[in-house]
């Protein structure tokens, strides 16, 4: 039996942050094992810690709740913890460096800090730390990832400032930073929160960082990036607009989610780059989650919408990371990122094909897999003829179109990578660690599709009693989950059939299309702001770096040659004659080494500031 008192004292972000430091100093296998064990600890805390608020205190004179456990944070913690274990195993087997994994674990720690935060002040701190550390994960790879990382930092830095303004405005209205269950204050705080959080969850027009960034870094880094920022941010959006908030913005948030599901799926379908395709599908699947959050926030009795949003968020953690892992193995083995240059790989890489298949069947909501359960909840919540209301009629059809686009995209990806033609290359399959990680996540996707009661039990707004799972909805008061009813299976069959027929018709013309994202045309200012901000940042860094290095070198020389330093100063005084002397070091140049990359510098500064703030919090 695990002592609950001990679990309440174990702060999940601190466990993972300590493991990140161990990764840097321990032998590689021991460091990675420490990272995996720390995330196993997070998983245990999420499962066994009793509900309530812990680690309360004061920070800069304000009451704060650094660690808040409720049904929602437990569900997300379980998903993030389990994924973290699999991601570390995958990174180890994929040859990721200790430095990359140390930065990634710091990123994971900040994400967990945001998810378990019990007040807006802690949230803002963890939100900004998440932006910094995720940028470092991107930068670590070098090359094109550096420029993409600057654009990424610009987006998330701007979004973070807007969230900070929202929190400040909320404090003015509410007089406290601590969560009270009603979400962000209405009016200006709510408007700012939607805009700032919309950057991280990929609202249309604020989403271009997704396909721009995630295809650039090391493929193991993409696995971490594909989940922690966006899924944590979607959960924070729920904290701002929880069930029963009755926010007027809820209906607009819901329809933004519906549009995201269509937009993301459409542009995923047009991609050649495999990771870009998956990145657009991050936006598309977030659309379903955002739609559920919006529906839940708009009306009081919409528990099925909130349950669907949180369940789909949990499931998305599993199948989205699995898909990035499978595609990463293909890139790792073939060196190719263009799906049209591959084909027939199922014979060469059967284990990777199985991993991809499990992820694809889950994200496309095929019966028997977890995506079918959570996406079905959201369809039911939006359907006016089921549990929805007439205001959600158009939203329901947007979600339908998004589902067909998702099926088309993954039929396309699987067909061209694994089944189209014969492979003209001979490559080995996934490494053992990669296989364990993929099949572990794939097994979880299958488990929660077959044993759907386990997923329903995790959803906080679903009420279990006597083997039944009930919830409140607007029309008749109480409903029950029946995911494998004939009507649900019929809907899934129609969606799949429409997608298969459509793919057969559009496959050839689709392969000739290469259309860019219109957001990059409509918002060219974003490109130029990002470019000149990047250049300004790098030039400022160069100037400061040169000045600092020059100062230290001069001090180093003065320390070795104090007499010559005095003579040099005396020569500047008019009328003073000074004899020539030989340097005590024989005139040899300084051997002091002061160079460090900008990523290393930012990481060190972040670590120091984090430690200082944690000490202040304690």
Outline the structure in words.
70% of the residues lie in helices and 5% in strands. With 618 residues, the protein is mostly helical. It has three domains: 1-180, no CATH class; 303-508, no CATH class; 517-578. The strands form two sheets. It has a three-stranded antiparallel β-sheet with strand order 3-4-5, covered by helices on one side. A two-stranded antiparallel sheet has the order 1-2.
SSE layout and pairings?
Blueprint: H1 4-9, H2 12-25, H3 28-48, E1 52-59, E2 62-69, H4 71-93, H5 98-116, H6 120-139, H7 144-174, H8 188-201, H9 209-213, H10 219-225, H11 228-240, H12 250-269, H13 274-298, H14 303-334, H15 345-348, H16 350-363, H17 370-382, H18 393-419, H19 432-450, H20 452-458, E3 463-465, E4 468-473, E5 477-480, H21 486-511, H22 519-522, H23 524-560, H24 562-571, H25 598-617
Antiparallel strand pairs: 1-2, 3-4, 4-5
Straight-line distance between termini: 29 Å
Given helix and strand content, the structural type is mainly alpha
Total discrete domains: 3
Q: Mean pLDDT, rounded to whole units?
A: 88
Runs in which pLDDT lies below 50 for 5 or more consecutive residues are none
- Biggest sheet overview: 3 strands, antiparallel
Identify the overall geometry: globular
Number of helices: 25
Q: Largest sheet, order of strands side by side?
A: 3-4-5
Tell me how many strands there are. 5
Query: Which sequence of SSEs, written as H and E, runs from N to C?
Result: HHHEEHHHHHHHHHHHHHHHHHEEEHHHHH
Rg:
26 Å
Give the strand content: under 5%
Q: State the helicity in percent bands.
A: 55-70%
Organism: Haloterrigena turkmenica (strain ATCC 51198 / DSM 5511 / JCM 9101 / NCIMB 13204 / VKM B-1734 / 4k) (Halococcus turkmenicus)
Membrane topology: Multi-pass membrane protein
Subcellular location: Cell membrane
Domain NADH:quinone oxidoreductase/Mrp antiporter transmembrane: 117-381
